[in-house]
Write a structure and sequence with these properties.
The protein is mainly beta. Helix content is 8%, strand content 63%. It has three helices and 17 strands. It has a 17-stranded antiparallel beta sheet. Strand 15 and strand 16 form a beta hairpin. The longest helix has 11 residues. The radius of gyration is 26 Å and the shape is elongated. The chain starts with 14 loop residues before the first strand and ends with a strand.
Length: 325
């Protein structure tokens, strides 16, 4: 077997069982393959397929394909770059894939992956190590758009465990990207940052901010030119460290709804901390922070408004109205 699409090296199978069934009236074929793999490739491989079309003309086949691999070795089986410019250097694990094909190309794939000792990088960037990763995924594509979903994703890396990840992504024919993230740990997002950011200085700023907390039900949309966007979601116990002119903030909770023209931030937190040395001599311990901030782009510039921002701390208690531009 050889991955000609990515220029991979040939993988040789020495011991395998094959069952081939031809269904004359249905113009279909069944192929089943069981093989013990050479140690450098893994433990075993199973392939089952139901194919319609001419096997001697593989340009227009359709059907279903199931692949199950046990203890597969990524470094021996995968060569070249993965989608998004990623490179999988090491890793081993089990995989189960169900796929549906049309015109000799897959248009739907669902599966389960369990892997460990994964080293993943982007181009010549930083190599990220994942101790264990398991989860379910589904991918669907047609001529106009693609969709990708991941759920029940559990990750252990950098001495931290992040369970129960879930996300949904979609890109349309015009290149606009939309998605929903059901739950995301901000430390996990920071750990993944080198895979999506090619700028080392940008990652260094993320590292200095050291974001904490969780995001829930975050929906977003970005057009193909990255000029228009929309975002909404909830955040819980969010915090960042001080960096340059950015103050240290801890234990913020609430929700956000924003576009490139307008935004709304609802705050509903207890025991928050604000450490802004340029503004206050000592950190502020805020027992209660509640209210809504609105902002929008006006002809005069950006305007911020609030008609009832309540702050209750050991130093002062206030209900404020803001109108800034």
């Amino acid at each position: 077997w050889r991955d000609e699409m990515r220029g991979g090296q040939a993988v040789h199978f020495q011991h395998f069982d094959v069952l081939l069934k031809n269904h004359y009236f249905g113009d279909s074929h069944e192929i089943h393959l069981l093989s013990q793999l050479p140690p450098q490739y893994g433990e075993s491989l199973r392939v089952s397929a139901e194919v319609k079309g001419n096997l001697f003309d593989p340009r227009d086949l359709e059907g279903r394909l199931y692949i199950e691999g046990i203890d597969l070795q990524a470094s021996a089986l995968i060569a070249g770059d993965l989608p998004l410019g990623l490179n999988l250097q090491t890793g081993e694990g089990d995989v189960r894939l169900w796929s549906f094909w049309r015109h000799s190309r897959p248009y739907q794939i669902v599966g389960y992956l369990q892997a460990q000792q994964i080293n993943l990088s982007r181009a010549q960037g930083k190599v990220l190590h994942f101790d264990t990763l398991d989860g379910n995924f589904a991918w669907l594509s047609d001529e106009k758009r693609w969709r990708l979903a991941g759920y029940d994703i559990n990750l252990f890396a950098n001495r931290q465990r992040w369970p129960g990840g879930e996300f949904y992504l979609q890109q349309d024919a015009q290149g606009a990207l939309a998605g929903l993230i059901k739950q995301l740990e901000l430390p996990a997002l920071m750990y993944f940052a080198p895979l999506v950011s090619a700028d080392d200085s940008e990652y260094a700023r993320w590292l200095a901010l050291n974001p904490k907390g969780k995001l829930h039900d975050v929906g977003f949309f970005i057009d193909s030119a990255s000029q228009h966007y929309a975002l909404s979601g909830r955040f819980d116990d969010v915090g960042i460290e001080s960096y340059q002119s950015v103050p240290r903030v801890l234990h913020l909770s609430g929700s956000i709804s924003a576009t490139d023209r307008y935004g709304q931030l609802e705050l509903a937190g207890n025991n928050a901390v604000l450490d802004a040395q340029d503004w206050f001599r000592n950190p502020l311990d805020i027992r209660r922070l509640q209210g809504t901030l609105h902002w929008w782009l006006a002809d005069e510039g950006r305007q911020v408004f609030s008609d009832g921002l309540a702050i209750d701390s050991a130093d002062f208690t206030t209900v404020s109205e803001l109108n800034l531009w």
